[in-house]
Amino acid sequence: MAIKVGNIPAFDQYPTVGIGLSVPFQSTATSGSDSIFNINYTTAEQVKYNLINYFLTSKGERVFNPSFGSNVQSFLFEQNDPSSLEILKKV
After folding, report:
1. Contact 22, 48 (CB under 8 A)
2. Using H for helix, E for strand and C for coil, what is the string for 9-70?
3. Is residue 38 within 8 Å of 22, Cβ to Cβ?
4. What is the pLDDT of residue 64?
5. What torsion do the CA atoms of 41, 49, 23, 91 make, to the nearest 10 degrees?
6. Which of 13, 26, 47, 63 is the most buried (most CB within 10 A)?
7. What confidence tens digit (pLDDT) does each residue in 20-70 have?
8. Separation in Å, CA 42 to CA 13, 46, 54, 55, 77
9. Which of 17-21, 45-49, 85-89 has the highest mean pLDDT?
10. Is 1 helix (H, G, I), strand (E, B) or coil?
11. What is the CA radius of gyration of the chain?
């Protein structure tokens, strides 16, 4: 017997619920505000900052998750040729 599952609401439907933190961390604590960091309230903003976090983290930089991150930064000033593109596809 199949169970009908209703629509799961997206996080964006709750504008007062924070999804994550933005990068770089900047204190927004002002008089009358309890927040310490900038909080993202939409999924699109959080995806943007998650991608920034991924590409700015080098592989092996995280202590308990050494496979997290990318080595794209090492190719920042390299020549744009087919061999570099093949290496980037493997990274």
Report:
1. no
2. CCHHHCCCCCCEECCCCCCCCCCCCCCCCCEECCHHHHHHHHHHHHHHCCCCCCCCCCCCCC
3. yes
4. 92
5. 160
6. 47
7. 888 777 665 555 556 677 888 888 888 899 999 998 899 899 999 999 998
8. 9, 7, 19, 21, 34
9. 45-49
10. coil
11. 19
Backbone angles phi, psi at 21, to 5 degrees: -105, 150
User: What's 78's DSSP letter?
Assistant: S
Structure tokens at 7: 């629509």
73, two tokens = 């930064």
For the full predicted model, state whether its pTM sits above 0.85: no
* CA atoms of 60 and 15, how far apart (whole Å): 36
